Amino acid sequence: MKYISLVFVLLITACSNVPVSTMLHFSDAKPEDFFQVDPNGIRVKVTINSESTFDPVVSVGLSATIQDENGERKFTFPLEQICMHKLAAETGYFSDKPAFDVFILKLSAQAIKSLAVINKERMSGNKKRVGLSAGVNFSKTSNVINEDTVLSIGLKLSENDKFVMLIDNWRVQEVK
Fold first, then answer.
1. Half-sphere exposure of 2 (CA within 13 A, CB side)
2. 9 C-beta neighbours (distance < 10 Å), count
3. β-strand 43-49 against 150-156: which pairing, if any?
4. What is the C-alpha to C-alpha distance for residues 156 and 171, in angstroms, rounded to an integer?
5. Cα–Cα distance, 137 to 67 (Å, whole number)
6. Tell me: the pLDDT tens digits for 33-56?
7. Taking the chain, what is the end-to-end CA distance rounded to the nearest angstrom?
8. Residues 6+ apart with CB under 8 A from 150
């Protein structure tokens, strides 16, 4: 999972500031590390302004492709929402913080099956190319954002770990 996380971090650096602590956390990650993680314990935390309308299950996408002599196969890793809670708005002397919705997500049964297939493919010994991608799609019809929308995404690889911030307070900008 560290490998996917590292790739995710690299993909999003073009559109947000990734915390240095995150880069350091995943700097020694190896592809094998990903397959040593219990997929049932992987959690994703998405935090976004409450005035935004956002469906993380539809909008957060994880996928992988394997290319070998048999062609290219794509695997998706759908997420399921475990819970959602709200953080109240805060008023301060120097700045105010809006209310935030915090979503906790986990890998679905289909995602766990996809991971098992990819691990089996990896162990087969055939020469292959593997591509991983992750992203957030705000163009879904249920999402409503404005110029004040701020998004954070955290990841933890087991239920007992702390969340590692992949995206921290990224101001979402509409592309026109």
1. 15
2. 23
3. antiparallel
4. 22
5. 25
6. 666 778 898 899 999 987 778 888
7. 34
8. 48, 49, 98, 169, 170, 171, 172
Task: Return the H-helix or E-strand segment holding 155.
Answer: strand 150-156
Distance CA 171, CA 150 (A): 4
Query: How high is the pLDDT of residue 16?
Result: 46
C-alpha 37/C-alpha 42 separation (Å) is 8
Alpha-carbon dihedral of residues 126, 65, 22, 85, nearest 10 degrees? -130
| Distance between CA atoms of residues 52 and 103, nearest Å | 13
3-state per-residue secondary structure call for 91-143:
ECCCCEECCEEEEEEEECHHHHHHHHHHHHHHHCCCCCEEEEEEEECCCCCCC
CA distance 22 to 11: 13
Q: Show the low-confidence residues of the chain (pLDDT under 50).
A: 1-3, 5-10, 12-16
d(C-alpha 118, C-alpha 62), whole Å: 14
